[in-house]
Amino acid sequence: MNEQVILIPAGPDLSASLQTTVFRPNGPGPFPLLIINHGKDAGNPHLQQRERFIFMATAFVKRGYAVMVPMRQGFAGSTGTYADHGCDMTANGRAQAADVLDAVAFARSQDWINADRIVIAGQSYGGLAAIALGTQAVPGVRGLINVAGGLRDDGNDCNWRTELVRAFASYGDANKIPSLWLYGANDSLFSPALVARMYAAFVGNGGRARLHEFGAFKRDAHGMLASRDGEKIWWTETARFLRQVDMPTEQVYAVGPPPAPPKTDFAKVDDIAAVPYLSERGREAYREYLAKLTPRAFAVSPSGAWCWAEEGEDPDTRALATCAKKSKQPCQLYSVDDYVVWRGNSGAEAAGGALGGNGPTANP
């Protein structure tokens, strides 16, 4: 995957820097490009983690693409100020799209990028930004992929649903780039009824788009793109769209899976009594963990600390990291997915064993 993190100049005078994750195949290129745009977590955008979208990125690198994931101004390690236009969803989308346009301009100047073969994707707020970008005829950009796009604002008496419909109507009126829309039936933010209104407003005002509603996905379709099982949902329709805009879809590179902790014979995964160090409350937590979705991981510490993580990227790393916040003793992974990886009290795990946990009163 040749992952690296670079800084892309952005803003009216290019004085800001966008912290950007890059993936690319081996070789000099030039490669077609996918740019993936992130959503917004609750709270301070600077505290949001750098996004990687590793599952989508891997699928595209296999097919010969370079992938860029820029964190927009004010998010994670990017400089600049987060542009917040309150309940004006039209202005919010356009403000975020400005950073994406700067990322496109930078990419087109690189000799390892095919400047005429670019696709823009976005999840949640990033999907809104992608469709907002499509109001301009951006050189080299052939298509947009909107995955659960939108923005929710429950503050200040904001009628955000109506404002979203109004925003998509505005973007449809000025639309220059075709798009694919992907929404799930059990999206916790955007219901099928709201999606139907947004889509009707967009295409009713002249926007070129095709909506694919894929039904329910696990507990919440809004997180589908961050799930390792999501590709089975989004790839078929995405490949169809890519062919329509004359972008490659055939796999040309092999990308191996990330290394997984090896299974041990210490115990069966559902043998709650075998888990070391846990108090009674910790054993109740492990019982709860066994009902969680995969991918998942459970970490423990000699201090009695424990933590589990499920879904998304690297749950084993996240479980260890959360366990690390208060414990003064090393944490180790006990189980991953449906098997035990515990090797006994042999010290720190090679991949992150200096991490400690929240103690016996911790919450996962």
Secondary-structure-based class equals alpha/beta
Number of helices: 8
Main sheet: strands, sense, barrel: 8 strands, mixed
Strand and helix order: EEEHEHEHEHEHEHHEEHEE
Uncertain regions spanning at least 5 consecutive residues: 346-364
Distance between the termini: 31 Å
- Rg to the nearest angstrom? 22 Å
Provide the β-strand percentage band. Answer: 15-25%
Helix content: 25-40%
Could you report the average pLDDT, rounded to the nearest whole number?
A: 90
Cα shape: globular
Number of strands: 12
Biggest sheet strand order reads 1-2-4-3-5-6-7-8
Q: Which quaternary structure do these chains form?
A: single chain
Q: Please, could you describe this protein's structure?
A:
It contains eight helices and twelve strands. It is of the alpha/beta class and about 375 residues long. An eight-stranded mixed sheet has the order 1-2-4-3-5-6-7-8, with helices on both faces. Strands 10-9-11-12 form a four-stranded antiparallel sheet, with helices on both faces. Helix 2 packs across helix 4 and helix 4 runs parallel beside helix 5. The two termini are about 30 Å apart.
